[in-house]
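Subject: mismatched residue count in predicted assembly?

I count 307 residues in my input, but I want to confirm that the predicted structure covers every chain. Input:
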Amino acid sequence: MADFEPVLKAVVPVAGLGTRFLPATKATPKEMLPIVDKPAIQYVVEEAVNAGLVDVLMITGRSKRSIEDHFDRAYELEEALRAKGDEDRLASVCKSSDLAIMHYVRQGEPKGLGHAVLCARQHVGDEPFAVLLGDDMIDHRDPLLTRMMDVRSRLGGSVVALMEVDPDQVSSYGVAAIEATDEDDVVKITDLVEKPPQDEAPSNWIIIGRYVCDPRVFEVLDRTPPGRGGEIQLTDALLTLARMPVEEGGTVYGVKFRGRRYDTGNKQEYLRTVVQFAAERPDLAPEFMPWLREFVRKNRDGSPGES
Ligand code: UTP
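Triage response: the counts match. Full output below for your records.
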């Protein structure tokens, strides 16, 4: 079977309001919140680049200027570090600006993830493209995007990333009805249900923040009415595509991901992510880990305030 055209561009929507992290996100994008000392969004862009996608379009909005600044040169800072001979910090500052070819388009109003993706239409054109949510991090040791791009290039259609959760968690997510294929970790999506009650969920496989979309998604999004929360939902458009034949740009596959994922848009997971990343840092762990062990030991039977 002929291979489908390759994926070359990444779209990263970061125009959401980030209400779960208020007041921190009143003037600072949640994607700029640091995981130890690197903003979450830099990990996401590094993931795209590691998958070979150096053309990155960010869908930004109000209060997101610092994201553009982060991926741009910072001459004064660079000069100051150079003058001090602080080569390590200089390299860390330059890294984000040398990473990818960055493009930006603004989503005037946060009308939903589907609407944010539609804002990429002119830049992307008639090519398949990847979508990476700016607050969803995938561990660089557990490749996902490359596998999704491989599935798209062989089978066509669109591809979503799936993760298995406990049955009592499905009601917080978009859940997929799936059909097996010849490949162990690849399924065909037959239905998508947003936040179903546990007893109505078609599976335990939820959609996470990585997508490879056929360009036909733009036409579908253009005629997708606002759905849940009055927002234009990417999931609704994907469901329409799942019901269309592959020759018309339809069909949606799912790649089952069993690696490490960090949902930094959620406070509990954000805290866990920072601790896990700190625990793996050779420059921090030797001091941080004994402190953490002692903290846990002392507070085993209650919160610090209670003892
Ligand atoms: P979320 O559902 O996490 O929404 O969006 P949010 O507004 O960012 O955060 P909360 O729930 O209010 O705390 C998922 C992704 O879609 C982007 C967000 O930036 C995030 O990366 N998004 C969402 C947009 O770019 N535009 C939108 O209109 C909505």
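The chain has two domains: 9-265, 267-307. Marking this ticket as 'not a bug'.
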